[in-house]
Amino acid sequence: MSVIKIHDKSFETYLSAETIQQRVSEIAAAINTDYKGRRPLFIAILNGSFMFASDLFKHLDIEAELCFIKLASYKGMKSSGNVVTSIGLEDDLFDKEVIIVEDIVDTGKTLHKFLPKLLHQQPQSLKIATLLHKTDATEYPLTLDYVGFTIPNKFVVGYGLDYDGLGRNLKEIYQLV
Ligand code: IMP
Asked: Fewest CB within 10 A of the end CB: N or C in the chain?
């Protein structure tokens, strides 16, 4: 186990790069099966989901579209949950098969607040794929269709996730010591 320091905090290895890659390929395989013959539009939520979305996309063998949008600002170690606005959502979602790609569902507030905006556009279907889910922290009702890992309510960094702007480049996921 390796310990790293980011800003003022120490983090220890929690999920190895191999473990993450294996799970991402399993999720992609499930999506390949579920969406065979269909053409989903993946909406990946920036910034945290960029690595997950990229790796997931590499494993897809179905036709699929991808767009990135920005929703909320998230500062420090507590989820603010303040959804500001969605930037970059240009596609008309009417009749589309949408799959939201999220890095982590914590309280669930971000997605819970955002989903009605998407549903308003009447997509044919709407599913959620999240790499991580802090089940004990989730306060808002959400149906998560594809979950990479269920994790305890501890702050994590790496593989796209940051602590005050740093740590997104790490291939592994680290947990606060
Ligand atoms: P929620 O609205 O509480 O579900 O928070 C979702 C967002 O908070 C995620 O997309 C992340 O950007 C951020 N977040 C929540 N927990 C963590 C964490 O442990 N590490 C880094 N970012 C987190």
From this structure: N
